[in-house]
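Allow me, if you will, to draw on your knowledge of protein folds for a short while. A protein sequence and the structure tokens that stand for its backbone fold form the material at issue. I would ask you to consider whether the tokens describe a fold that such a sequence might reasonably adopt. Thank you for your consideration; the sequence and its tokens are set out here:
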Amino acid sequence: MSLLDGIRDPRDVRALDPEQLPELAAEIRSFLVEKVSATGGHLGPNLGVVELTIALHRVFRSPDDMIIWDTGHQAYVHKILTGRALGFDQLRQRDGMSGYPSRAESPHDLIENSHASTSLSYADGLAKAWERRGLLGDHHVVAVIGDGALTGGMAWEALNNIAASDRPLVVVVNDNARSYSPTIGGLAHHLATLRTTRGYEKFMNWGKRMLHRTPMVGEPIYGALHGMKKGVKDVVAPQGLFEDLGLKYIGPVDGHDEQEMEFALTRAKAFDGPVIVHAITHKGRGYAPAEHDDADRFHGVGIIDPDTGKPLNAGGPSWTGAFADEIVSIGHERPEVVVITAAMLGPTGLDRFCEAFPERTYDVGIAEQHAVASAAGMAFAGLHPVVALYATFLNRAFDQVLMDCALHRAGVTFVLDRAGVTGDDGASHNGMWDMAMLQVVPGLRMAAPRDEATLRAELREAVAVTDAPTVVRFPKGALGPVIPALRVGDGYDVIAESGAPDVLIVSVGAFASLCIDVAARLKAQGIGVLVVDPRWVKPLPESLVHLARAARLVVVVEDGIRTSGVGAAVSQLLRDNSVEVPVRNIGVPERFLDHGKRAEVLLECGLTAQDISRSVVETMALLTEADQDATSEISP
């Protein structure tokens, strides 16, 4: 039996002899490659934290001691060591195991923290609560922050508060020099300095050994040297950034030397105050295809050949790829256009722009708030910034969109990738809030393209706006077919119609094919339909009012949360114009959605052609019945 087969609980990890741990680490890496290559997931980050995680579970007693992971995608090894290895066959699958820590899965997980830079605040709050309850000391709080998460401003707000206290709290900085791609910024440069000047602890240990051998004068000299440790550290290992905050610093430590990590963590655990343990790790460690991937060290993979690392499913043209091509074309034509990303150059497609215009590309790290406010400053100075983010991460910078861009009428374009239901990554990564959230921003204009052609056109329209923020949002994955307009109205495209327009369907973005399918089903039921794509869903075209007056029912279908979304905006527009036509808002329900394939999640939400057409037919039947009742009441 392998060592891994015997791991059902962290106690089993602690029971192993130190000589067995390299074998356990090798088995874990083989297990990760085998399982994640079959399901897809975050492979590179987890290959890099194997020894670090083993050491954590040998020094600390989870869940009595709470280990908080940030970012959460690097917690696969933690899941294995806490008894969830069998769940990896269903990793990120419907009703299977989450790709992030999950409170529902295990008492070893405190939070579902797939958004970065949050762990230190959670840890600070937990330490305060345990201190208040008299538990701190018997229970330990450990925050593991890395894979770029320390570039987020929220992490430094938390560090400022942690350092101002004397509460025991261990912060493990997993320093792999990367988030998705190489980590950018002053902090990254500081950590790089620490990585390349690892001499302080060795120097102090050497000095202690040598001076203690010197009779009479050795002890006093060592004492003086230790008293001058800050100056010595600044020379041989400039970790003053942390110590100036008031944090005890241990490291840098080789994060792939399990014994060295255990020693450092044991020292940190014994210290009566906040401690930084700085671990140096390598993303993708032990798996050649990942180690040789300069782009992102196999940060996230689909289904791959475990031997070669090559994708098994050939990908077709994608929304991200179409955007990447078009923004490069725009860059050649418009020198004032610059791009900003928050540590996601490759995932958002901006790597192509960076290759063409490196001097016009800005990666700010995992710092969405700074990205947006910085973009406003660029706009004030005559540039046109394009900020590309996953839709879910714009949530973190709403205040900056509202107060720094919209209030100042700054010409900034936001490109939101992975908008709507994304699926596999679960509740926190569905980009379902953007259309509802942004409806309340005065002056903002928002486009939802339905295909590649409208994406390219609407992106160009967006960057031409200089007096307001603009948004272009599109879903994850492969592009669908081109959907031409049958005819063009005042601010909308007609994409399907049959008979008298009893039902007006307002199609939002990539749901155009779905709405055309619904229209065909309604036509088969003898119901006349007009399907329009407004293209820009904020502000809505006033011409929708005229179209609605001619219909008996208005149906809005959107790939976003239906509360306060585009459907709500259509309803408000009609009320403002005294149009009494009923409106059905069909979209994502107001709840957090479990992970699963996108089609499975849409089916659960009732966002299929069959479900929508059935709902419309039933509503039309009720309206017809109500009309007949009204007619009978007024008949003589």
About this structure: Residues 102 and 112 are 5 Å apart (CA to CA). Residues 609-634 form the longest helix (26 residues). The chain has 26 helices and 18 strands. Confidence is low (pLDDT under 50) at residues 183-192, 232-238.
